[in-house]
Structure formats: C-alpha cells, structure tokens
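Consider this one:
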Amino acid sequence: MRENSTVTIHSAGKSDMESVRGILNLYIETSACLWSETLRNGRDIMRMYRLHQYSDRTPLMVAKIGREVVGFSALSFVSTHEGWREVAEDMVYLSPKYTGQGIGTQLLEAVMLRGHQTGLFAVIAKINAENTASLALHRFFGFEECGVLRDVGIKFGQRRSCVQMIYYYNRTAPDPVSILP
C-alpha cells in the first residue's frame, strides 16, 4: 500500500469494482480516450476483476481518498499467444474531478513497479492521439512513441488515431535501423 497525504493506492478488492465500473462507464459515455461504446455491467466488471487476479503480472490498482475510489490503473496481457507473456498494456483512469492532482502519476507508478517486480520485459500504451495529458504522463515515465495508427478507431462518429508507446524495463529501445534486414 502506498500513501501520499490523503491518497491511498492499493490492489483493487471486490468491493472497489462498482466504483471502477462507474469511472469506466463515465469515460465510455463522455470521452474519446476510451474507444468502447458499450457500458459495462456488474458481470463485465467482475470478469475484469477475476482476469486481473489471475496473474501477478496483471495488477489492478485503485486510488482512494478516504473510502472513495477516485481512479484505477491496470496492466493487462497483450495477447493470449505465449510469445507475448513478458509484455503488458497499461490503463489509467481517474474520476474527472481528481485529474491534475498527481493521482494518475501515482497509479501509473504503482502498476509499473508491479510490472518490474514480476519480471515484465516491456509495457505498451495505446493512447488516443488527442489525449495530450495521457501522452505527457507516459513520456514522463520514459515511454517512447513507437508508431501512430492513423484513423483506425471510431468514437462519437469520428475517426480517431492511436499513438503507440512502449517502455522497456532494464533495456533501452533498439535503434530501428539496427533491426532492419
């Protein structure tokens, strides 16, 4: 558990999941940063909880102020193919009234530390190109841009682009020229 004045970061428990669902559904309804259009129900969110309990490499963390869940972060497996077992994808979401207070930084730090402790090789982020706050947060942590998928997503009837970023644990990114045949 990590505390910073009134904010506490810890692994999510079952009792936190209804609040996680509320935050997630708010972003689904109101924000272009999450390209889902289907609201999550109680069964969906408990499936998410169980998936994140499956492995130490897929932590689901919550930020609380008092008893209120004000945000969450997670690492998820990138693929079911075994070759991807050392790579995870991150997510960080905050209740809008708590953005800009450093809580997202604490949440990303918590899951990145867990990823390091469990031996992950890398963490990737897929971020809406318009989400400048998330791009800045990931750059702050040392993520590097590795590509842009232009106009691949749709949210609110508009095409959206995805910036792909990567963070390597214990290794610097290879020079792209050096890996070409």
The radius of gyration is 16 Å.
